[in-house]
Amino acid sequence: VLNGLHQLLKSVEPTLKSASGSLAAAEDVLLHLEETDESFHKHDFVKFIRENIETHIGPLVDEEIEKRSISGAPNSVSRQETLVQAVTGNAVESKLFSDLTHMICSSTISAASTMLRSLDEEHNSMSSDEDAESQLSKRMKSVFSEGASTYGSSFNQGMFFMSQQFHCIADELDCRKPIDIRRDALTRLCQVPPSDVMASESWSQLRVSLMDALADSDPFLSHTALSFHAKMFAVPNYQIMRETYTCLAEHLIRWFKVFSHSLPSVNEPLDITKPDIVLLLKRIRLLNEFQCEVPSIWVRYPESFLEVIVDSSLALLTLQLNLGKNNSGDKLTALNFLSLIDIRANWFRKWLHGNYSRATLINSLEGKYQPLLVDAVLQCLMFCRDSLSKPSSHPHHSPQDTRRTTYTPRELRYAHFVHSLCFVSRLLIYTGGRELFPLNVRIFSQPISVQQLLISWIQLIGLAKSKPKPGHKAYEAAGLLGKAICSLCVSNAFVEECVGNDVIAALLVPITSWLGYGKRSSEACMLHIAEILASLTSTCAGRKLLLHGGTNNRISPSRSAAAHIIAEFAQKSLNGNLPTSPSRSTGAAPSYQVTGAFVFVCRQMYNVCEGLLLLLEYQLHQSIADAWKQAHVKWGDGNSAPPKSYDSNDNLDEQSSPTQSSSRNLVMWEETLLDNLLNFAATPKGLLLLQQTGAINECVAYMHSRYTKKLQVSKCEKFGYGVMVTQVAATAAGTSALQKAGFLRAIIHELWVHLEHATDEIRMTAPRPFPLQPIDRAVHKSFMGLVNVLSSYQAVHELFYQQSLPNKSSYGFREIPESPVVSFPFCQSHVFGLSEMIIDQLSIERNYLLVKTHTIGGEGERLLPSRNLFDPHQRRQNNYVWPLFHHFPIPKEYSPTIAAQPSMKKESALSRFLSSTKSAEKNRQWLDQLRATLIKVMKSAASTVRGGVLIETIEKTLQALERMPEERVFKKSPPKAGANRDPSTPSTPLVQTIGVKLAIRYGKQVNALKANPETAAGNLTAVLRSCGQFLSQQQSYSPALKLTSGPYPCHDWFVSTVFLMLSGSKDRSIGMLLKISELLCSGYLWPARLHASIHLSDGVRASGIPPLFSCTGHHVELILQTEHPLIYSAFRMSGYTPSQITQHWLTQCFWNYLSWTQITHYVLTIVTMGSDYQVYICVSLLKHLQHEILSHRQTQDLQVFLKENAIKGFLGSEWFDYMIKLEQSYRSTVLTSMRNI
């Protein structure tokens, strides 16, 4: 009745809510429910009433009809009506109908009372509804009471119980009653809904009787009582669940206190087929199942519900714990049985998952239930100690071994250990759990720390015999310990707090054994260690610990750091140079699986800038490339069929496999090596190393195969291949590899499909609405992907140089471009319209692009038109105020008037210092004094550092630097054989001609040039030609790439900068450039200086990767990762890299991004303060833009913002303190790397 009534009310709830809040209206709805509800006769409550009427009243009605039909009267309508009325009247007036009505009303009243009582308890906090609920309760009780009084008050014994009957059952269930009476009483009790039992006044007495029944030796009573508890757990009422759980828990506590003598001791086998053990296991299993399910619901109920459940559970589990006393007569406890049922402590894992229950649980473990935690820690330590003292095969359960009937004492102890291990390892994940350590234990003189636990676990892993297999539920101790440590080491907070040098030293012991320092550890042990190290290196704290040995000293990192030992092992494993094992003269090389696992650990370190620099000496890129080439040759020689593609994150089989497995091993080994080699492309310098191996095309092709399948980079990576694709595309060689692999075709195809709304699924049937935004959100991601790939000049040059645009008379709408070159005529063919000048959004955007490409200038040096048709700042919303640029000269509205600097020289501390020194005094000491003076002046009066003072400072600094051998790294030397010399006067390239025009126009605009434009243009062209001829004598070209097949392809913006700084003087410009060309700073200030230069190694020169990218960009990312992780993360999440934008800025000497004054200060700072200040300036710029970077990361247009907009508000003089701080921390690393180009 209760369930049926509840279902009926739930189904009519919407109708009742619409009854205008009136009880009378609600009653009217219920009275006419049969007329309005189509499912009326399908409700269980209605079916219950109908079945009772048919059962009790049906025979009476049939009998009355038969009696009245014998008369044989005519079958008329009036006759039928009279018959129905007569039969109905007799049936309603009968005693059967009266009893039936009374019974239904009584059961309904009881069910309604239970529902209302539960509703009041569950919603006791909703005070606003209490009055209405009490009124509804009274109204329903009065309705049923009136109905009951109408049909009589007699009540025969039926299937519904009243309070006196519950009292009678409670008396009959007393343990002193005969067994038959108790069985009958319990049977009758099981027929009553659990909610009625709990609501009865005899519940406290019934509760005691049920616990007695659970402990009874009679199987019927104990099993029936347990079934009744299981039935009560299914009731969705927290009070019933709470009472049921505490009843079961208290019974088990009492049972273990009274009957534990009947259990076997910890040193005796356990036979789980004995009836008393079977019943005990069933009780604990029921308890455990509720423990695992209750966390999903207890947040809905009062906090007291949670506290009672936790307290009851921990009280049971802490019962009779021996806490390391090792008494052979100790009996098995509830914790031993729970360990057999839930060996991985899933109940504890679920209880700790939510913060709601975690705080209560940890507080309990810190207080009176601390013995449970102490026992778990002791079990872990003692098991490890015993196993290390007596190494032997440990018992472990197999998932297939499900029909065992006996557990040996060793298996029982092992199950207890596994449960304790899962308990402790799960607790240590959370901050509150770690705060419980160090833990005081009586049998230990010192408190037990987390590091002690970890070290003991790692030592036991040394006994590993089985290799870890993904997705395999192994119960070997080493495998469980390895997984537990890995789950902890992926937490950065845990590593910072709990992992120290002692733990790292323990992890390195197996590795050093393979390097010739003792007996070799097993390969299974090595694989577990590699997994733990990989988890460590996936966190910032763990990576720093391995790289710096806990000192965190980047200036002079420790040679004993773990990274060096790991890299040495990986290198020697790849090269086959490991020392021979003392126990055997052959077979020194580890398996592919072990080598690949430790190469992956190294990869976790070298795919960040700091780790790559530290591991550079081991030449891992070359070792991996050589191993890949050997594997590739082996596969090619032995197999003619193409290899099947495998996931490189799969585990390799053992080398002793059959032939088919060996072939699979070889293919997976080859892909593993390619995958690890590819990850060098995660950093700018790593990309240079990858290019030098000659395997970049194969690596990019492998990346493309995984990228198209949407696979993650590795098991430890959170991002996909987007950033790596962008990094690769920043170089000419990388762009060429992307094009060969089909990356560009895939990106353009995806973009074109979005543009044309031509997806296969909804091409014709459901076209999408045409977007109103300039860039549709659906196409935005594809467009940004193409922007990332084509954001560097090297990429554009490699793809478009000497490529003629295809020209077709017409293009079909089903045609899709296959390359960037082909896409241009496609786009043009889709642009149509009138040739007249029309002010619309498209013409405004065209006007913006024309003005922007024709003018040059940083903040305040050029005015760009609005990109919106309706300017919100104008009063007249229908008037576009900017003139359209459709013929030369450009409208004057776009060229602001810049006041000329006063010609009178203003004396400053810098000018006084320069005038007071002589030529002979220009040495290292003088240079240090100059730098100190410059810093002081830049901080106090940066506006005075301009014009003649600035040029004089640069010239005298160059004189001092020429006398320092460490700065004069590009000495004049005769060109090598094969160097390019062209005595004829070359024609001026078109790109240079356009660049000269832009530079002269900009120089006149900022008042840097006094001569007329034609003369200045001729002088600048002559300077560019002279520099080009000088540099060509020190260049060696390579036909492998378009970029390296000839002279520097870009306009030389640095030469143009020097020319403007010297007011257009041709001779002075050439003289200063020749002096700079011998110094280290020229390799970074002057991008054309080292283009295809003979001063570079053959590999670097052939790669076409400039030092601006591989060195400056690398160190910018290094500092950002350490000092400004938010900025670095914003770039990664945008699929863009800091090295790309810094290369773009520096290649054009910050033209269009900084004002002319700031550009001259940039050149002055690099020449005077050192080449490493180029890195610090770029970091300062990105820090200055941090707010905008984070903001545009949210709008997903970071690349466009950084490329298109000038840097506003940046003054280099204001960042000197910050740059000096960076110099103190990073100069030794940055400057050393810059000198080693």
Write the layout of secondary structure elements.
Layout: H1 2-11, H2 13-17, H3 23-31, H4 33-36, H5 44-56, H6 58-69, H7 77-93, H8 95-122, H9 130-150, H10 163-172, H11 179-190, H12 194-199, H13 203-215, H14 219-233, H15 238-259, E1 270-271, H16 275-293, H17 303-317, H18 334-341, H19 346-353, H20 355-366, H21 370-389, E2 406-407, H22 409-427, H23 431-434, H24 450-461, H25 477-489, H26 492-498, H27 501-514, H28 523-537, H29 540-548, H30 562-575, H31 592-606, H32 609-615, H33 620-638, H34 659-678, H35 684-693, H36 696-708, H37 722-729, H38 732-741, H39 743-756, H40 777-789, H41 793-800, H42 820-829, H43 841-854, H44 909-916, H45 924-940, H46 947-961, H47 990-1005, H48 1013-1032, H49 1053-1061, H50 1066-1076, H51 1082-1085, H52 1098-1103, H53 1107-1123, H54 1125-1133, H55 1138-1147, H56 1156-1169, H57 1173-1184, H58 1186-1194, H59 1198-1204, H60 1216-1235
Antiparallel strand pairs: 1-2
Quick rundown:
With 1237 residues, the chain is an all-alpha fold. The protein is elongated.
Provide key terms for this protein.
1237 residues; mainly alpha; Leucine-rich Repeat Variant; two-stranded antiparallel sheet
Give your account of this protein's structure:
The protein has 1237 residues and is an all-alpha fold. Among the domains are: 164-234, Leucine-rich Repeat Variant (Alpha Horseshoe); 236-391 and 404-448, no CATH class; 909-944 and 946-967, no CATH class; 990-1103, no CATH class; 1107-1149 and 1160-1236, no CATH class. The protein contains 60 helices and 2 strands. The protein has a two-stranded antiparallel sheet with strand order 1-2. Helix 30 (562-575) packs parallel to helix 33 (620-638), helix 37 (722-729) packs across helix 38 and helix 53 packs across helix 57. The model is unreliable at 73-78, 125-160, 640-646, 654-659, 831-835 and 975-979 (pLDDT under 50).
